[in-house]
Amino acid sequence: MNVTLRKIGNSEGFIIPKEVLDRHNLKAGDVLSVTEDGNDIVLKPVDDAFERQMKTARQVMDKYKVALQKLAE
């Protein structure tokens, strides 16, 4: 399956065919991570639950930074 890069504002992008979106349960507004694997470009859905958990963990670590440093000693 081929897609064509298109000008979108000041960026460039491509349209993901509906069949691919349906197969991977993707919809408008979903966030994808972009990585490179050698010569390949890999798109993967971002796990929102994991991102929320990491945000909460960072907030807790910031709040208890001193106590966590003492515990680590």
UniProtKB/TrEMBL annotation:
<dbReference type="GO" id="GO:0003677">
    <property type="term" value="F:DNA binding"/>
</dbReference>
<dbReference type="InterPro" id="IPR037914">
    <property type="entry name" value="SpoVT-AbrB_sf"/>
</dbReference>
<feature type="domain" description="SpoVT-AbrB">
    <location>
        <begin position="6"/>
        <end position="51"/>
    </location>
</feature>
<dbReference type="InterPro" id="IPR013432">
    <property type="entry name" value="Doc_partner"/>
</dbReference>
<dbReference type="InterPro" id="IPR007159">
    <property type="entry name" value="SpoVT-AbrB_dom"/>
</dbReference>
<dbReference type="Pfam" id="PF04014">
    <property type="entry name" value="MazE_antitoxin"/>
</dbReference>
<protein>
    <submittedName>
        <fullName>AbrB/MazE/SpoVT family DNA-binding domain-containing protein</fullName>
    </submittedName>
</protein>
<keyword id="KW-0238">DNA-binding</keyword>
